[in-house]
Request: fold
Amino acid sequence: MTRLALIALALCAAALPCTAAPKVQDTMAQRLQACTPCHGREGVATADGYFPRIAGKPEAYLFEQLLNFKEGRRGHATMRHLVQPLSPAYLREIASHFAGLDLPYPSPERAVADPMVLQRGRLLVHEGDSGLKLPACVQCHGQALMGMLPATPGLLGLSKDYLSAQLGAWRNGLRAAREPDCMKHISRRLQEADIHAVSAYLASQALPSHTQPAPQPPVRSPGASPPAGASALLACAAHRNP
Reply:
């Protein structure tokens, strides 16, 4: 290429308009795009549902789980790597962002378990098992099973595989929480068949019209009798405020 051609090419390039890089707004939603490959767009979970929905969960619950990952009580290497450098204050901001999202839930899974298995699951969820000293799930997670403020998560809108994996992780000591760790004690009283039954039942239930967590129950005065059917495990779970 001749010198004259090079000069002409340079002049043409200089005449072209400069295209500035698109400006990206610095918002929490933008920062938390890193969460979407696993937890889905805006935290509503991906199609396979193995990673949980985090949108709309109670803020205190989400914050506590982020701390559990950061401090090693939940053994998920990717999550621990992501949250390890973040301060508790910033983890609280993340929890607040996802807790504030009120988005539609997917349709429940089709019930494929044996009817007797689903009946056992329904019994444990709604009535518990006094012989095993198990409180009903609804006593802590709300009658609608959508969670309870300040820090109890909902159990609907989650896949059977995820629910089963988490109950199994608690039962086998692979998942823990700060004391009082109520689910540790509850899960160890569940047989594997009961974990399967509870998970299958919950995953197959339709969502209520109101999907927000239930309000925090009133605090009982010291020495007051617990509600009917409640146990020490229920009391510690229902009134825990991390």
Remarks:
- Residues 3-15, 224-235, 237-242 have pLDDT under 50 and may be disordered.
- The radius of gyration is 24 Å.
- Residues 33-216+229-238 form a domain with the Cytochrome Bc1 Complex; Chain D, domain 2 fold (CATH 1.10.760.10).
